[in-house]
Write a structure and sequence with these properties.
The structure is a single chain. Helices cover 19% and strands 22% of the residues. It contains ten helices and 18 strands. Strands 1, 2, 3, 4, 5, 6, 7, 8, 9, 10 and 11 form an eleven-stranded mixed β-sheet that branches. It has a five-stranded antiparallel β-sheet with strand order 17-16-15-14-18, with no helix packed on it. A hairpin with an 8-residue loop joins β9 and β10. The longest helix has 15 residues. The chain starts with a helix and ends in a 5-residue tail after the last helix. It binds heme C (2 copies).
């Protein structure tokens, strides 16, 4: 019988009908995560959810969504679960008890992609009882396993029991698993930048509307969470984005620190740096500062860890420890040239001198062009478009001109226009702020937010053009447009 099952799995996994296994990049937490069952730490805000959970064996009942996130640092793997649940119940309080009968989350981790069958399990019910197993080819201990140093809390932690109540809406779990628990299987502890592991995240149990769901889908015909062949793949990556509010030089106001480059920032220095960069650094980073196979883009409109000349110089001269970024092994003068080049790639509008009369530009913004109808600056204006109070520190002058004069090739997230009618006959015209398989959040033209269930939608249309007009090259005089750009280039949050 066992042999038959194994053959079945082998046949079923690659076959049609099985959905592709999901992938997820685990970013590093660059601020502390406090394990208190609340996912309110600043770090969590930077991590994207792993993606939708699959109801592999669904027959009937509501498919309540789960939002799960994973992060890491040198010591721990962090997992956060936010479980929508209108019927929360849990009774098991004994360590290693049968928690999966209760409302429960599970995490199965296989730290070595060449041995996915070696996996470790963490099952936690809503009141914070945990069950662990070590399912590996080397384990000869009892059926249960004692991981070291795991810290975890649920939002209902420590209750003697939890019965369903009409107030039930959601519960959450936060846990930190020390990497040292995986030292027998993981290729590196802590993982190295780029390392891949396999894992699955699940939910199960409860009394009313008990549903099983998993992040990585389980192929048809198999009815078990214990299917390591179907685990998704995760990759340990750096946290490339530093939240705007955390970057100290931004808090001080002006876009960037002054240049300390002994070679200056003349165009010849920049050109020499460009050639050196393109010949020495593109094994990992992309040509002309774009993203490469093994290194991040050095030129992009995002927020960097290193913004001063000195920090860039030191990263290139000494490498960045704990990452793939090696010391350059170039003479200091060459490094300074590369620094000048990287700085030139990153220049935003506020670093440049954008000519024009900014005061008149403010007038154009408020009256003639009526940009404030959709955009806010310093707390005044509309909400359909992004807040432009800091736009001079986020975009180059060229980006700003392009935004005003050419149609968007891709509409950014949060600004997709939508027109829909609901089953009850209501018509809504606005932008999609958020959506998933079950619902949409739409902001209409009077900035009201509508939360709409997909089942209530009768007709829906997604216009291909952004609400951002692209005609200002024609509708404004060249002088007005230049003044408007001068005004925008100086919008840097103080
Ligand atoms: C072996 C691959 C590799 C090579 C070669 C390499 N880099 Fe990197 N570099 C990386 C990785 C990976 C990172 C991200 C490090 C981290 O996680 O902080 C990085 C980060 C950087 C950063 C920091 C980005 C920031 O603002 O935080 C700079 C600057 C940089 N590299 C410049 C260079 C230059 C210049 C060269 C050539 C002299 C070079 N790198 C060669 C892999 C590489
Ligand atoms: C009808 C509403 C509307 C009006 C009027 C409007 N915008 Fe926009 N704008 C948007 C929306 C929505 C976006 C975001 C979607 C996009 O980028 O396509 C946007 C994006 C932008 C961006 C890009 C922001 C970024 O982060 O890259 C800039 C810059 C901008 N608008 C400036 C202006 C200026 C200046 C005016 C007046 C001359 C103006 N907008 C008028 C709706 C509007």
């Amino acid at each position: 019988m066992l042999a038959v099952a194994v053959v079945l799995i082998a046949i079923l996994l690659p076959s049609a009908g099985a959905e592709p296994l999901p992938r997820y990049d685990i970013i590093r937490a660059n601020s502390p995560i406090v394990i208190d069952g609340k996912l309110d730490d600043a770090a969590w805000q930077q991590a994207p959810p792993v993606g939708e959970f699959h109801f592999n064996w669904w027959k009937e009942g509501e498919r309540e969504p789960t939002i799960a996130k994973i992060m890491w640092d040198n010591d721990n793997l962090y997992v956060g679960y936010f479980c929508h649940d209108k019927h929360i119940s849990a009774a098991v309080t004994q360590r290693h008890g049968p928690v999966s009968k209760d409302d429960c989350v599970e995490i199965f981790i296989s730290p070595n992609t060449s041995k996915p069958k070696n996996y470790y399990t963490f099952e936690i019910n809503a009141i914070g009882t945990m069950l662990n197993r070590c399912r590996t080819d080397w384990w000869s201990g009892p059926p249960t396993w004692e991981p070291e140093g795991v810290a975890y809390r649920t939002s209902l932690h420590g209750l003697a029991g939890k019965q369903e109540s009409p107030q039930d809406e959601h519960w959450s779990v936060e846990l930190a698993i020390p990497f040292r628990n995986f030292v027998r299987d993981a290729p590196h502890i802590p993982p190295q930048f780029g390392d891949e592991w396999r894992l699955n995240l699940m939910r199960t149990g409860g009394v009313t509307n008990a549903q099983d769901s998993t992040w990585s889908p389980i192929p048809p015909g198999i009815h078990s969470f214990h299917t390591p062949e179907a685990f998704g793949t995760v990759r340990f990556v750096n946290s490339p984005v530093v939240a705007l509010a955390q970057a100290p030089e931004r808090r001080r106001g002006r876009g960037r620190p002054a240049s300390t480059n002994p070679l200056g920032r003349g165009s010849e220095v920049i050109e020499a740096g460009r050639r050196l960069y393109n010949s020495s650094c593109t094994v990992c980073h992309g040509l002309e500062g774009t993203v490469g196979d093994r290194g991040p883009a050095l030129a992009a409109t995002r927020r960097y860890l290193r913004t001063s000349d000195d920090d860039l110089f030191s990263a290139i001269k000494n490498g960045i420890s704990g990452t793939l970024m090696p010391p350059a092994g170039l003479p200091d003068n060459d490094i300074w040239k590369i620094v000048a080049y990287i700085r030139s790639l990153r220049a935003t509008a506020s670093d440049e001198f954008v000519p024009g009369n900014a005061e008149h530009g403010a007038e154009v913004f408020r009256s003639k062009a009526d940009c404030s109808q959709c955009h806010m600056i310093d707390g005044q204006g509309g909400l359909l478009g992004p807040d432009l109070s800091n736009i001079g520190a986020e975009r180059s002058a060229r980006d700003l001109r392009t935004a005003l004069t050419t149609p968007r090739p891709v509409i950014p997230r949060g600004y997709q226009p939508v027109r829909l009618t609901t089953a009850s006959g209501e018509r809504i015209d606005g932008v999609v702020k958020n959506e998933d398989n079950f619902s949409l959040q739409v902001m209409d033209r009077s900035y009201r937010i509508h939360l709409i269930n997909r089942t209530e939608v009768k007709t829906i249309e997604y216009p291909k053009e952004s609400l951002m007009p692209s005609h200002y090259g024609q509708s404004l005089s060249a002088g007005d447009l230049q003044d408007l750009l001068a005004f925008l280039s100086r919008r840097v949050r103080q």
